[in-house]
Design goal:
This protein is an alpha/beta fold and 447 residues long. It has helices at 5-17, 22-41, 44-47, 50-54, 103-119, 140-154, 173-187, 207-227, 243-254, 277-286, 294-297, 328-336, 352-360, 368-371, 374-388, 394-418, 425-443; strands at residues 59-68, 74-85, 91-97, 126-131, 163-166, 235-238, 258-264, 267-270, 302-305, 316-318, 341-343, 364-366.
């Protein structure tokens, strides 16, 4: 499948060393296959062993997190931080708290983050961390004690110029507050060591909305450039109902789309009249309840247990829940139902064979490391505001976000065109993200 002996050799070496890291190998294979045109034309990449170095994280930190639950029992979870690459800036990336978290998943997320952060054009390297701690069903006190225990180890590895975590699945405003508070106490300093902070303690306006809004700005720009089209009048499917999903749906609606489905890990709701987002916000953000409760107040909507949103026809598909949530079978169904564009809000939500199916069917496919980069981009803007001790208005941040998302589309298309790939957003994003980091690594010598 590989065109170059070099990329193949690097991939096979990874596969031989850690064959069980399935998600990580999936992400590495995708990136290596994508960047082969650049590797072939630039012998310096192999001479400087760039690929071998890029697939090895700079540092992997693993630790025990012991905390006391409400019943007085001691619980033990696993904590991780993968500091992947800091050639173009301090390590930057979220923390995920979910029962499925393991080293392979965080390693794939850290690897992807390197290229995503590069695409933003800001000075941020890549990292990711988290725990197999599940926030579902935990009291605020339990979440606080867990976060404090987690940060009691992590704090010694991070810093505002070293490694700046943020949220991801299971880590929202509540968790960030507890984590930041514990860092502040232990380090005895108030610095921008975390992004996604509360607005009263160094947070940025528009960070909460940034990933979802950014996804729609990116999608809108792609529709404009490649299809001379827009969200106007389109049926939109959004999976998940967390931070990314809710604000993707909000912006999709504002841009004239009609969002008809949303989901959580128990199933999906279908409201042919268009999802009432205030109700979803109330259920998921305020009450932390199940999406099925939507049908109580909206009897015309349907809850479908244990199924995915992709069986409902749509023109714009925005997967915003988790990795590998669109399989080849889901892709076939979406294609048969006339999907025009798939833009990833989640990280790696589309399996490789599903991506293949979309590309073969001429469905526009927008890779997450480009289309969901708005979250980390505004994290970069939060870091800038913290450093300057100033706070920009919502409009100022939102305007910068729009500029960054449009530039990512332009840079990806330009990279694809440099290598004769046509309007290929997928390979173009990987190449554009890769080239900036590779250039910085070459310039800075062997490390
Ligand atoms: P949240 O925790 O806010 O929401 C996650 C949503 O996805 C929930 O609705 C959850 O359902 C659902 N979900 C999670 N895991 C699964 C699973 N294994 N099966 C089915 N449904 C699942 O997370 P975010 O919105 O922050 O993150 C969503 C995605 O976006 C992730 O892939 C993340 O990496 C990515 N992302 C996030 C960014 C951010 O700024 N937050 C930035 C860029 C990407 P339930 O409520 O039932 O658990
Ligand atoms: O996957 C991601 O880009 C995030 N979860 C956001 C990372 C960040 O540092 O804002």
């Amino acid at each position: 499948m590989f065109q170059t002996e070099y990329a193949q050799r690097v991939f096979e070496a990874q596969e031989a060393r850690t064959p069980w890291e399935k998600e990580f190998l999936q992400a590495v294979r995708e990136v290596l296959l994508s960047i082969e045109p650049a590797v072939r034309e630039n012998p310096a990449i192999e001479q400087h062993a760039i690929l071998e170095r890029m697939v090895e994280p700079d540092r992997q930190i693993r630790f025990r997190v012991a905390w006391v639950d409400d019943a007085g029992r001691i619980q033990v979870n696993r904590g991780y931080r993968f500091e992947f690459n800091n050639a173009i800036g301090p390590y930057k990336g979220g923390l995920r708290f979910h029962s499925t978290v393991n080293a392979s998943i965080l390693k794939f997320l850290g690897f992807e983050q390197v290229f995503k952060n590069s695409l933003t054009g800001l000075w941020m390297g890549g990292g990711k961390g988290g725990s197999d701690f599940d926030t579902h069903g935990k009291s605020d006190g339990e979440v606080m004690r867990f976060c404090q225990a987690f940060m009691s180890e992590l704090y010694r590895h991070i810093g505002p110029n070293t490694d700046i975590p943020a949220g991801d699945i299971g880590v929202g405003g509540r968790e960030v507050g507890y984590l930041f508070g514990q860092y502040r106490r232990l380090a005895n300093e108030f610095t921008g060591v975390f992004t996604g902070k509360g607005l009263d303690f160094g947070g940025s306006l528009a960070r909460t909305e940034a990933t979802g809004y950014g996804l729609c700005y990116y999608t809108q720009e792609v529709l404009r450039v490649l299809k001379d089209d827009s969200f106007e009048g389109k049926t939109v499917s959004v999976s998940g109902s967390g931070n990314v999903s809710i604000f993707a749906a909000e912006k999709a609606i504002a841009l004239g789309g009609k969002v008809v489905v949303m989901s959580d890990s128990s199933g999906y709701i279908h409201d042919p009249n268009g999802i009432d987002l205030d109700e979803v916000k109330d259920i998921k953000l305020r009450r932390r309840a199940r999406i099925s409760e939507y049908t109580t107040t909206h009897p015309s909507a349907q809850f479908v247990a244990g199924k995915k949103v992709w069986e409902v026809p749509c023109q714009i598909a925005l997967p915003c829940a988790t990795q590998n949530e669109i399989t080849a079978e889901d892709a076939r169904q979406l294609i048969a139902n006339g999907v025009v564009i798939v833009a990833e809000g989640a990280n790696m939500p589309t399996t490789p064979d599903a991506i293949e199916a979309f590309r073969a069917a001429q469905v526009v496919f927008c890779p997450g490391k480009a289309s969901n980069a708005g979250g980390v981009a505004v994290s970069g803007l939060e870091m800038a505001q913290d450093s300057m001790r100033v706070a920009w208005t919502f409009e100022e941040v939102d305007t910068r976000l729009q500029t960054i998302m449009k530039k990512i589309v332009g840079d990806s298309l330009a990279a694809a065109s440099r290598y004769g790939l046509g309007p290929d957003l997928f390979n173009g994003a990987n190449i554009a993200g890769f080239e900036r980091v590779a250039g910085a690594m070459i310039d800075q010598g062997v490390f």
